[in-house]
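quick one, 291 residues, struct below
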Amino acid sequence: MLSISMIAGLVPMLGWGIADFLQSKAVRKLSTAQVMFVSNVFWTLIILPFAFFVDLNISMNNLILVIIGSLFQLVAMVKLYEAMKIGEVSIVTPISASYPIITVILLIMLLGNALSLPTLAAIILMTLGIALASTDLKRLKHMHTTKGVKEAVVSLFFFGIYFFILELLSRDITFLLEFKAMGSYTFFFYTSIFNGLALLIYGLLKKERLVKKEVMEAVPYMFTAEIIYLVSWLALTYGFMFGESAIVTAISSVYPAITILLALIFYKEKLVKNQYFGILMILAGLIMISH
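---
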């Protein structure tokens, strides 16, 4: 029988993997800004009712940090969608998902967390994996780099910083200022609502005209993806509260494998051997660094 921790990890693993693929379908029909706007109209409407069920008390320091975090998450998402639009989803998704490299480095440098040998090995493995996944070695002499890789790497860095900020919010800590740990569902509500609003405002500021036919074709993908994201995040939060966070994180971190599988099946993306090895190294590194 599956434990709470395993179920709470499997739900976001499958959910994030499927939702990322659905969003890639939407991005290929609309611009990044248009997807940001429409998707986050849905997301904001879904999240707002949670205000009636959570403790809304939050310190000013934490509120400021949530807002700053939403800006980093905004850049990360914009670059991820741009990467999905122009590149191979099976390559750019695992690269972007390697953000723990940056988060761990920041935790070590800024908070003095110890670096274990398995963590160091995972970072090296993912770094090498990114290099292999993003390049066709046969064409290296022509300086060929796969489309979307630069955008995915930028996304990796900004997601890494964003998750470092989430670490500051999740426990009592003093880093320049004092940050008190937020309750799990309060944490979920504030990060979700500000992330959604940042992405929504970005979509509005771009002032891109929405074509009804194109939007209607993309809406089923975006709406379904947002519902799946919601269920995934709630499952993850529940797992952290009542299960073993190490197991939940390790299982959920394998979500790029689901996106890759769907991209290979439905987009019929073709990769060279070294790119397959690179993707496997990234996935192995994600599992190692999550323990």
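The chain has a mean pLDDT of 85.
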